[in-house]
Structure formats: structure tokens, C-alpha cells
Amino acid sequence: MGFGDYPKEYNPAVHGPYDPARYYGKPDTPFGQVKLNELGSWFGRRNKTPSAFMGACSRAWWRWQHKYVQPKRVGMAPFFQLLVGSMAFFYVINYGKIKHHRNYKYH
């Protein structure tokens, strides 16, 4: 699958219009329904290639877009989610500088 191509599992005659937020591969047990003794085999069935990871990130992005950003009446949720996400990101990348400013008790 090249950049910008449809997934190889997508068939327009079967699936209809393409939805970037949908997984067109073989359905499997959802993670929330996997039992502890089946966890190893469930992870073994996952596709662990970089293109599969990027596809999962793309689907997550489009699901977020369809749920919070693109509805007819958009609320404040996507703006606050981006704000909190950016605050957490910048805290993580600046943690090395911030940790030196802790309040220590010298006694």
C-alpha cells in the first residue's frame, strides 16, 4: 500500500463509500473482551509493521475528527482536548528543566 492508496482489504462493491475511520481488515476480538490467558495470542495476531501503526494512528485521528470536530454543532471539547494535550506534551518535554525547581526542605 503506497501513500494515499486505499487499504488492500477495502472493496467498494462490498463496503460502499470509503471511511478513513473504519478498519477494513478481518475483524477480531475487541481488546476489552480478551481474557488474560488469551492476551499473548491476541497480541500475536496483531500486525506490527510501521504502516499498520500509521494506519491505526490515522483511524484514531479520523474517529476523533468525526466525533468532536466535524459535527454540525461543535462544542468546546476539541479545543480543551487540544489545550490539555499540548500542556501535557510540553510538560513532558520540559520535565528535565522543571524538576530542578522543586521545593526541597533543608534541615
From TrEMBL:
One GO BP annotation of this record: proton motive force-driven mitochondrial ATP synthesis
Predominant place of localization: mitochondrion
Cytoplasm listed as a keyword: no
An example Gene Ontology molecular-function term: proton-transporting ATP synthase activity, rotational mechanism
Cellular component GO terms held in the UniProt record: mitochondrial membrane; proton-transporting ATP synthase complex
Pfam annotation, one family: WRW
InterPro entries xref list: F1F0-ATPsyn_F_prd (IPR019344)
Protein name, entry field: Mitochondrial ATP synthase F chain
Species this protein is from: Parnassius mnemosyne (clouded apollo)
